[in-house]
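Consider the following assembly input.
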Amino acid sequence: MRKGATPLLWTLFSAGGTVAAFLFPIHLLLTGLAFPLGWMEPPSYEVAHRLLSHPLTRMYFLALISLPLFHWAHRFRYTLYDGLMLKHLTIPIVILTYGSALVGAALAAYLLWFLP
Amino acid sequence: MNAPAGYTPYHPRWYRRRVSVWWWLESWPYTRFVLRELTSLAVAYFSVLALWKVSAIAEGPRAYADFLARLQSPFFLVLNILAFLGILFHSITWFNLAPKALVVRVGGKRLPDWVIQAGNYAAWLAFSAGAVWFLGRG
């Protein structure tokens, strides 16, 4: 890994960690538990679609999905290095982690940009 | 040290203790450190779940209804409880470390750590309550 990329990767890690720390608990609690278990009524399709159509909501969801993916990529890379002691596999690990994050971010950008 | 010039990744004259892959189970602080690192899996899981939701909304009412129904399966409920605990651990450890990353000085004096932590927790609760209110009003 070139030294030059480290500050950028760390900034993405940090931004993604902050987004995940502040926003993920309530989103997961609502989408993953409160709606499926009937504690709260999920928004109807019309409401969900109308909300997501707003440009601000699209930018919000792009940040919500992509930044934490880079947080995962960076942290998981070092988990594999330290936890499983795989430092010698640097190149495949870097491609797998940041590559997956890039694919996810690109997919989110595509879907949100071309939302019908 | 009269080692020959040049870098060797492995030096046969040095003693190196073999470290087990499970080194982090030896003590609780190590285990806590690795658990904190593993919260990134829960974070990635929710990013993918949010991506799935966006894609269902983009696809249409049937895909959205299908998405909501799938999340009612026991598999996803159990997964979501585990992911929620992981993300909660991430949030708490993140806020507790915030004073290390964010040094705020007021009138030349450094704000105490607990003020920054309390500010983070307050903002977190305010945002979460706002989100529930926003989606709950229909």
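The beta strands of chain B are 105-106, 109-110. Ask yourself how this observation constrains the way the partners meet.
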